Sequence to fold (245 residues):
Amino acid sequence: MIRKILIILSLLSSGLVWAQEEIVIGRSVISTAGTTFKTQNTSYSFTVGEPILGTYGYDSGYLTQGYQQPYDPPPIRYDKLVIDESCPEIRNGSIVLTNFRGCITGDYKVTWQDGLTGNNLENLKTGWYYFRLESCDSIIKDSVLVGLTSENPCALSFYTAFSPNQDGVNDTWEIDNIAVPPNDINEIIFYNIWGQEINTFSNYDNQKNVWDGKNKNGVDMPEGTYYFVLTLSFTTYSGYIELTR
Fold:
């Protein structure tokens, strides 16, 4: 607070009396576009374009105060960084709210629709995610959409038959899109009709790691029905295969 002494000259019937009254001045505007200077024990501050109000009191100089300027705080802003879900139900999407600005105190609190707090979410599936941002006595409600990279690249397609007879056609059993991430991290086990394991592969890729109708010892399996169990990081598939020669 700035304290100044205002000298008031009063004319009383008994003569001249000098009185001093202490005046407390509230917030004042100080700007690099104006100036500040002192005269004896009095300080003056004003900005360009402000009227200067003065009260004269004997030899003590002037008391000056500019009008209070209105304060319009800047809007709260932030950036949204989104990674879409790569495949349906994989839940590998994410949201990051970053580069917050506009609050002079630098305090930003984010609360998501499920009650979680913090400026990031992970392991998300496709959909809308709503949040509330509290900052500098303001509340902002907003939302973020996590999309799907594509409907097709992750969809697996299993063939129910193949013929490993070395004629160059359907000699190996392939799975469409098995080499597309995240499907490429996998394990598959083949069984005969009695539930006995005949072969197994890690990271099946239709090329180096692919079933050609042989068991673990490299012996050709006879024609018939076989079963498979494919395990991915997020789900498991099973089915049957007809082997013909």
Q: What stands out?
A: The two ends are 97 Å apart (CA to CA). Residues 1-19, 52-58 have pLDDT under 50 and may be disordered. The chain has three domains: 1-70, 77-146, 157-243.
